[in-house]
Design a protein that fits this description.
Elements lengths: L9 E3 L2 E3 L3 E3 L9 E2 L2 E2 L5 H9 L6 E7 L16 H16 L4 E6 L16 E2 L9 E4 L2 E4 L4 E2 L5 H17 L4 E6 L4 H6 L14 H4 L1 H14 L4 E5 L13 H13 L5 E5 L11 H8 L4 E4 L4 H9 L5 E4 L1 H5 L3 H7 L27
Parallel strand pairs: 3-16, 6-7, 7-12, 8-11, 12-13, 13-14, 14-15, 15-16
Antiparallel strand pairs: 1-2, 4-5, 9-10
Helix pairs in contact: 1-2, 3-6, 7-8
Amino acid sequence: MTSLDVLSPIRIGPLELKNRAFMAPLTRCRATVENGVSTHVPNALMAEYYAQRASAGLIVAEATMVTEGNSSFYAEPGVWSAEQVAGWKLVTQAVHAKGGRIFLQLWHGGRTCHPVFNGGATPVAPSAIAIRGFEVQTPQGKVAHGVPRELLASELPGIVAGFRAAAERAKEAGFDGVELHGANGYLLDQFLRTGSNQRSDAYGGSLANRARLLLEVVDAACAVWGPGRVAVRLSPLNSYNDMQDEDPVALSTFVAQELSRRELAYLHVMRGDFLRRQKGDVLSAFRAHFRGTLVANMGYTPTEASQAIAAGHFDAVAFGTAFLANPDLPARIRAGAALNAPNPATFYTPGPVGYTDYPALA
């Protein structure tokens, strides 16, 4: 046991962070919409939202599209255009003015994308396997997922190049680093897990093959940012978006060992399954095999997080809805104050209600 807790400072790469309470990436669908069409451009309202939460040890901004035409939501942000970079500069400048640090989460939705958001284009995936049991929320109501198109091996260098270009634009926008989204059933996660990847080429089958695309993307981002400015998020147990793997602990062990060879800022792991369909202890596998800063996520209270940090189970914790509803979460933890309750009805609705109007402590 140590005397560390969730409010203790921590160093990741070259960055000295004021506490270990990170703000998890949270899709909020507040990017600019013009004439009923999302431009995926960040805006002043988003800058206000993130600046309110600058007391986090680190903010991880929401899942952001690396390339055009891969939207899974109605108004999530992108980072492929000059206008989007300019919008993100509003965000990073506002956060830095409040003394905060912020990473951008880079993301490709893969088979979670839907033609209704992407000009009718069929989504792509490691294999032509549709998402079952989940629907997409659109302005016209919920719609089912269709069968995606299997990516050709010749297309995968273009996917890697898209992530690399997005990493370059994130640097231009003033972020302190990037987190690569390899969790929750999106493209990189789809390649990792056996339930969605049934390829027979160099990107399917063995653990090494299934992890190949993720590691190529990591290496591309590290080439842009250098040591200690790139992170990865993983969720080997989470069944959200119809995901499963035949051996999540073995997957966790292999990926932890591979990522340990790279100088990551941190590895961000979701400890369980949102839907409680799959069980296992993946966090211990990551702790045992990843030599670096380990960040845990999913349902932690501040007290549980502090106890686990003191016990050495991980090094920091990412809070999601707690930060959503409590812009001053570290101050509330320090004061032992009650937390605001989040309102799920406003998680994805436009405007400031349920976004920038949660009160801070007096």
